[in-house]
Structures are given as structure tokens and as C-alpha cells.
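Section 3.1: Structural characterization of target chains.
Under the original work plan, the team committed to producing a structural model for every single-chain target entering the pipeline before any wet-lab resources were allocated. The record below documents one such target. The sequence was received from the expression subgroup and is listed exactly as submitted; it comprises 226 residues.
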Amino acid sequence: ACRADLYVACFATDDVRPANRDLRAGLARKAGDGPIALAVAANHLFAASSLSHSLSSFALDLRDGREIALEGSDLEGVAEHGGRLFVSNAGPGTLVVWDPALGRAVDEVVLGDLSGVNPRGAAFVGDRAYVALYGTNAESGGQEVVAVDFSGLATCTVPPCGEVVRRISMLPAADADGLPFPSDTVADGTAVYVALANLKLGAWGYYTDPAGNGKLAVIDTAADDA
């Protein structure tokens, strides 16, 4: 009865707020620096903070908040599966598995050969995580979705336990002179939907300008193809 209809992460003001179905917000609760993604696990709300490289943990009524420091940098996404949290650690290009029951990380999987793969959102179909690799430019890696198999996580004793089993390029979806920049992912049944920014180089040498419309890729997980 105390759980809000919606939780909102406020990046600029470093807090998390509850909202009801009419989108009326409740009192803000202090989170880490730059909270950017939310997940519920073990009857708690967790906020991944990009700038403080931490998880903020709250009871579902947003009382009893505490901050959990994680190694790495720029935590861009968090997803729940099987009671565990899967945190996108963009700095080293890894996916960290945090177990709330144990209060520690139990696995960390490298998602690419280059540090600039920049992982963002993750979504699960079965025991397989589909992680969007945003990248930073044409040379940084990324621009794809990786499928990571965690079916052996429960019995694994020596990390890494997850294994990258498929890489699905999003490059064909970008318009001319652009890169796709896949960001967030959502699973519905056996389909995974991936938001693509579709950007090209701007006047200051960064990928800031639209190459065309933003797009939505659909992955058929039975074939691991987009």
C-alpha cells in the first residue's frame, strides 16, 4: 500500500521522487550525484547515479535511504532479474551484478574490447540480458546490442559467470553520416525494443545533431536478430 505508482529519478537535483497515476509528485528524497536509472529488487528501490558511481537504496515508501559505492564510473543503467541488480558500468565497459541479499557484487562481465563501448540500458528475456552499447564515436566500439547469458550465475563460484553469446549490430539502422547510438532497452515477451538516437557529427566535433528521425529497433530473441 505504501508503494508509489511511479518513481522518478531527477538527475539535476540529485533526488528520487514518488508520483501517483495522475503524475502528482510527492516529497523528494536525496539520492547520489546524478541519479539516472531505477529498478526495484528485494522490496527496495535502487537508483543508479552516473556521477557519484553509486547505488542509492530506499524502502518502497522512500524511507531509510542509504548509498552504496561501486567501483568504476558513470553508472548509466540498472535492471532487476532474479532478485539481483545488473548495473551498466560505462567507464570500464562492464555489467556489474549486485546481490542485495549478500550486499556485494557477485559478478562483472566485460562487454567489449574497447573502453568506449559505453553500456546503457539492459533488459532480460529468460536468463539472457540484452545490453545497449551506446559507444561514443565510430572508433569507440558500441553501436550494438550484446546478449549476455547468465543461466549459470546461481551455481558459478569463479567470476566472470555471465558470458557474451551474441553481438547484434545496430549500424544498418542509422541514416547517412550518422551512428545509431542505442540507449535504452525494454523486453516484452520474446521481443526486445531498443531506442536509437540516430546522430551525426555536430559543429563542435561531437555526435549531437540528428542524422534523421530517432528510431526503434526490434530484436527477435529467438533468432537474436534485429
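The CA atoms of residues 88 and 95 lie 5 Å apart.
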